[in-house]
């Protein structure tokens, strides 16, 4: 992060641990975030896609943020995923994040109805910004069309940035499409643009991007830190090769259950295996296959992961 606290660098799309009863395990979450920070992560995005955000109720998301801040996590190091299918809930969660002093809100476009027009996407974001009605609000537009089915066009981003120049702070582009990411970077040099796909981080930085908000940082934050900081191409290529092998391995499994299975193995804590329905944890055979494949990536727990609790 900059001295002024502007989000940039390596931000982790934080996993959400569950308690035996199925609720959010906030002590484990706080411990996880502190380990990430100690390993070089600049900040976290709470309740994004990797964090299963849409599987949790509004009250759960509010209470978890409150508990995290009460545990000593600095709000300036937290972006909050606040998007919901119902705009009044998005407004409530976004206002709560602002009231807590968080770095910003990561806001999805309307995602239930498909083929939404640019006018509809603009109107949805405008209603959120106007509904919160706070000059300190900073919105990061969340482009992940393979999940939402509703892309953020460059034209609607331009309209929003023009209408709310102090509020629209940046974009998280999780399209995994380098050409799309680079087009956003060219057109919006005044917006802070993060990429979600770890393998695109060096190219995005070279084109003016400010960093990554990504899931692999949960598991191997030191690797992402080195990749972001690397100024030597040979060093970058070594980190990218290891990350690439991990991405290929993860692609053979359901992503969030796989993330949690690796997290459970790295921390020797099987509590991390639990996911919220409709996701299903990997079975024993799936975990064996995943962990056997992990050994071939070249990633090392002592060198690359966050370390012990």
Number of helices: 13
Sequence of strands across the biggest β-sheet = 1-2-3-4-5-6-7-8
Order of helical and strand elements: EHEHEHEHEHHEHEHEHHHHH
What percent of residues are in strands?
A: 5-15%
Number of domains: 1
Residue-averaged pLDDT: 96
What's the architecture, going by CATH?
Alpha-Beta Barrel
Helix content: 40-55%
Structural classification: alpha/beta
Throw out a few tags for this protein:
TIM Barrel; 13 helices; 8 strands; alpha/beta; eight-stranded parallel barrel; single chain
Topology:
Blueprint: E1 9-13, H1 26-38, E2 43-46, H2 58-70, E3 78-81, H3 87-99, E4 104-107, H4 118-132, E5 139-143, H5 145-148, H6 154-163, E6 168-173, H7 178-187, E7 192-195, H8 201-206, E8 211-214, H9 221-229, H10 233-250, H11 255-267, H12 284-294, H13 301-304
Helix pairs in contact: 2-3, 3-4, 4-6, 9-10, 11-12
